[in-house]
# Entry
Amino acid sequence: MGRKFSLACLLAITAGYCAAETILIRNATVLTVTKGALQNGSVLVENGKIAAIGKNVSAPADATVVDATGKYLMPGIIDCHSHTAIEGGVNEGTISDSSMVNIKDVIDPYDINIYRALAGGLTVSNVLHGSANAIGGQTVVIKLRWGNTAKEMLFEGAKPGIKFALGENPKRQGYPAQSFFSQGPAVERRFPGTRMGVEQVIRESFTEAKNYQATWKEYNDKLARGEHPIPPKRDLRLEPLVEVLEGKRYVHAHCYRSDEILMLMRVADEIRFKIRTFQHVLEGYKVAKEIAAHGAGASTFSDWWGYKIEAYDATPYNAAIMTRKGVVVSLNSDSDELQRHLNLEAAKTMRYGGLSETEALAMVTINPAKQLGIDDKVGSIEVGKSADMVLFDRHPLDNFSKPLKVWIDGHEYFDRDKDLETRPEFQRKKKALEEKLKAEERSGAAKQGSEESAPGPTPKRAGAPRLRQEGIQ
Amino acid sequence: MKYRWAILAAALLSQGGFAAAPMAIALRDAHVVTVSGPDLPKATVLLRDGLIQDVGPNISIPADAWVIDGTGFTVYPGFINGLSTWGIPAQESERGGPSGTGQRAAEPRVSGPEDRPETNSFERAADLVNPSDKRLEAGRAAGFTTSATFPSGGIFEGLGAMVDLAGERGRDMVIAQPIGQGIAFRVRSGGMGRSFPSSLMGNIAYIRQLFLDLDQYKEAKQIYNAHPGGNRRPEYDHDLEGLAESPRVLLPADEAQQIDRTLNFGHELKVPSVIYGAHEAYRRVEAVKQANVPVLVSLKWPQKPNEGDPHEIPDYRELQIREQAPAVPAMLAKAGVKFGFYSDGVDSAEDLKKALKKAIDAGLSRADAIRALSLNVAEIYGVSDRLGSIEKGKIANLVIIKGEVFDAKSTVEYVFIDGKQFRPERGK
# Structure
């Protein structure tokens, strides 16, 4: 058994995210979120899981001990709405139902925003397709295991999702609209152009999905009867919708206005599927009871609105009101910048709506975990859960707090001191490499005479992945 | 018969650098790098009827052979460009719209995979090649005799052919076809382009869908042929016929995460795959080796862009890619990964030589470089039974260099293609 374990662990180490290390975090204020706060508490991490929590936790002699006196330990922050680390376009915005595309296919583990988010205490992201179409692409939950491959970042066992979008974005027809004043040919637009049309797209796609289900059933029945039917074509657009109907895939619906939120719930009830979360949901406070009755969660902003017409009738009390009406509420980032300080977004719900400290912290930990169906694994500091934790220098709801260390599965992915320490060395290395390449270019140019004979320009990278676009030449 | 030869000779002579093809040619007393076997410091290569009739140190030269004194010359298998459009003149290669631009306003909007966007899977390089392409001469001047040539344009770019870089007509150039399906990702306006697909994930979803369609198409045809009564006949599908013929797919991947993605994707498609690009493969040598997927390394080494903001500070990774890319071939060779080179738009003899020199300066051994330019590519495309080394019975595609290849002062004296001799013009 021991041997088997160590072999598995060895493989996992080579994969980069093994957490065989035993860690004892001592004497911290432990904000468990689900079981209150523990003063001068210790947390023992073994095999990537939280093994013990208490005032007096004994650790084996070889454990790494982190003295956290005066510091605060909280669960890793979870973002229910992110577009980080997507390569080659956040939207497949060309069509009104793009459910065949999958964010899982295009995760870029080298996106520096992953590391920057880690530095803000984020450990889990629900990476979503954009909101250009009524039914968008498939979504994926990742753990921010910086330094690993895309596959290794996937949150094992997290149910996949799909993005829906209502309102202005999908009815903008997925194409940058031609300005009233601009010259040039008119741009052909795609359906839908109205909120009615958005509803129609959803209805039509699910009608097709049901037919698709029936077609396959008919085929399988014929096979069972010993006939020789020709199999139907597989349809990657309809398959995820069938999964939604079968409860195997979550729907995360981008929305703003209360009338549309009600519309989508009516459509879902009629077609018989569930909305897992309403995203943004700025008018959720108007229909909170109905959202709670549907069993949907709400993932909203703290105090960001007014950036378009449908986002005006908003209030920073939204999260608190929905919480009081029984909705599971989370605060999301929708942004590479905001995802670095979601703890402060959570703090705003105490100022606006008077939520308790624990309720505020839940907005970015256990609540998004519940919304993503991963609350049995992450979202709080409890024995048996994954050791996804953040150590803050002050209370995380304090404006001046900074994450000092971040663990995922008991593996340290961020350490503020180490980061600061290595910066000068990194800058030196980068400078040296820049100089070396410059020198090579100069000598190359001198030797070879003309610039013309050098290979042509490489596409600009500027931090973003460089996709081979030219095809075969 | 005589008459035909005369016409042929006239035709050949009318083009610069051509010489009439005698029945047999003997290259005597040359250093022969066979690639498949040991180096022969002083040997004769005998060519007849476009084939290598014999090679070895003690070969009797037949009376009808033209004899070339090979003293001071080194003979290598003709170099093979691992992937290009060489042989397809520019206007032919542009069908399917200019790549990467999205200027296809005149075409009807594509509203989903069912419209089969940018699908030229049936396009055949063998039908498009033509000896009038100016790049052939430049390629020959750099020692290339052969190219894995693919049509260009679209996501499914079409069926490639292994072609000679010379011939009287297009059809004379074709050695083997189809040798693979070229695939490119066409990302436009960050996913907000006019027609599906315009994001990377849209491209991937579409390619996945077409391969699923192919599975169904094959099964449907099979079932229908066995049980025609009671089933509707499957529709003939031009796109899928092209895809069905592809013995392998070529998938683009430059950066590390793209290589991971491509390895997974190729595995998922259940078709043998070849990666092209590979400039950041130094981070994924082990993964590529484990996956046992061959690699074609682009000779267009990444460089500081000629245009763009001079004050922009590139990120560290970009700098590393510029530094490390030319070392990729050496690392692949060391790890035992099968790889070749491809021109990727580097089309002049001088630039090709320079680009190859960079890989050698970065640690690639000459022997490995030569193999990557010949037998490796032939093996990648499954034509090593007829190409890629100097062996009895193989096609007489050779390059003869005064001195040794990759030396600063060496020159390409002759190339032989199908046993026909070409002399590159000096100064090209």
About this structure: The longest helix of chain A spans residues 416-448. Chain A touches chain B through 76 residues (CB under 8 Å).
